[in-house]
Amino acid sequence: MIKKIGISLIVLLVIAQFFRPDKNESGYETVVAFESETSPSPEIKAMLRANCYDCHSAQTQYPWYAAITPVSYWLADHIEHGKGHFDVSVWDTYTNKKKDHKLEELIEMVEDKTMPLDSYTWIHGDLSEEDAQKLIDWAKKVRSTLK
Fold first, then answer.
1. What predicted TM-score, i.e. pTM, was given to this entire model?
2. CB atoms within 10 A of CB 73
3. Predicted local distance difference test score (pLDDT) of residue 2
4. Which of 121, 100, 114, 125 lies closest to 37 in space, CA to CA?
5. Contact 57, 87 (CB under 8 A)
6. Bridge-partner residues for 59, per DSSP?
7. Please, which residues bridge with residue 27 across strands?
8. Distances from the Cα of 73 to the Cαs of 42, 45, 86, 104, 147, in angstroms?
9. Of the ranges 36-50, 99-113, 123-137, which one carries the lowest mean pLDDT score?
10. pLDDT one-digit tens code per residue, 13-64
11. Residue 52 φ/ψ, nearest 5 degrees
């Protein structure tokens, strides 16, 4: 009985590999408006690309394990959730008030160390204290220009 269940699960896992969610890969051009308006330094831009854009823009650099179902669905859910909170690809559609609020949330979450998510940092690495502070300082500077 256990053998039949095990074989059935393996067969289901193999079949599941043929069904994956759509990828979030529109490219870096989707962040042009955000980067143009916020003017991140090359260092900040690199931090954003390494730690934020995968889940908060229309371009995700997928790791190798994203090709494995059910991990692909888990990642798709994270990306959808992340973009639901803050999507730099649609930055130009936000009002200044909303932009200010999103940057305020970014600052709070980086200060509280709730962003990037633990599930992301386990594999990709976390922001150093120094990098986190640089990101916070940049976001505060951008907020001051929106008022």
1. 0.75
2. 13
3. 85
4. 100
5. yes
6. 25
7. none
8. 32, 28, 20, 30, 39
9. 123-137
10. 777 677 776 776 665 567 888 999 999 999 999 989 888 888 898 888 777 8
11. -120, -45
Q: Read off the pLDDT of each residue in 104-132 and give the average, rounded to a whole number.
A: 81
Residues with Cβ < 8 Å from 83, sequence gap 6 or more?
24, 55, 56, 57, 58, 89
Q: How far apart are CA 107 and CA 124, in angstroms?
A: 20
Interatomic CA distance for residues 50 and 59, integer angstroms: 12
pLDDT over 90 percentage in the chain: 32
Q: Which two tokens stand for residue 139?
A: 């976001």
> Which segments of the chain does DSSP mark as H helices, in order?
2-16, 32-38, 42-51, 53-56, 71-85, 96-111, 118-124, 129-146
Give the residue among 79, 130, 138 at the shortest CA–CA distance from 103.
Answer: 138
Q: Which residues contact 50 (CB under 8 A, 6 or more apart)?
A: 124
Q: How much of the chain exceeds pLDDT 70, in percent?
A: 86
